[in-house]
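protien #1 (seq + structre)
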Amino acid sequence: MTMPHGFLMTTGFADSSQAASAIASHGPTPTDFGIWILVALALAPGLERIVSWARGGKQRREVSFEATYATTEQLDGVRTEIDGRIDRVETDLKTLEKSIVTNGEARRQAIEAKVEGARIEAREMGEKLTGEFFHLGREVTGLKSALESVHSSLGTTQLKLDRLIERSAKGRTES
């Protein structure tokens, strides 16, 4: 067995025959075994990856299930729990429905009150406007009759002025 050159220097043997005879006579020490075990454990995950890659990267996986069955008491307990949940949900739904109906009724009443208020206000404004229209109608009628009176007076005054102008023109021509 030939040893590398660096081995002889680290072991302190002069040549490889001395080192080989020392190893053969004494054998590996427990420290050597410990080191080799640590090296093997450190390299094991890497070797596993290399082997997995060499096989195509596929790992064989197995899944197993143990058959366990529920007892009648367990099923009854689950059924009771589910029935309780269903009852609570139904109760919550009924409460919510009542709340919606109550809120809807309250909203309907509020809307009806607003509509009725708007109707009353519209009636009052209509009555007020009607009164104002009648008042304006009376004033317009009064103004119309006054205007007719003024026109009539103007017409009469115009005729009188025309007569006066004619008389004064006759009187100048005669004198």
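ok now protien #2
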Amino acid sequence: MAKSPTIPEAKIRQAIWMLKKGKTKKAVCDHVGMAYSPKRLDTLIEDFHKRIEREKQLKAKARFKKFSESEKKSMADDYLSGDGLIRGLPFAIDSSPGSSDSHGSAVDNIKSIPNTFSSQRNNARLFFAVGEDIIRLHQYSSINPIYQTGWGSSQIANGDRFKWGWVATYETHQ
């Protein structure tokens, strides 16, 4: 599949909608910000549909992944060992996007972390380690983002009400 890092997904969705509404391919190419090329536009839309279908297949496959007892034990041991990692993602995080691209993101549903942080750090976030099947727990400063480091389990466990519910997505090429 050809990738076009300069054309965001929203623009591709708009292009598909414009074509459904009867706009010309020239107008759609202008809107998307590319030179008039019907073949390139068709390829862009076709690749977009393939990617969406592949994501749907991967999500369905990951949804029904059963963790073995050894995988569950490994996750618990990793947490208790002090490395602040979440292991066992069904697929590795993609390493092909450029350094400015997002490899993954998460949104908090609930976050109750009355725990301790290192100096000049006051919050926690999930860090997506490129090329690995790991999400790292990091601590950071909400005032100065240069202060970001791993968050050890001794700090995580230094509170009796650690609750953190989140949903995450990340890019793969599986």
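The chain has a mean pLDDT of 75.
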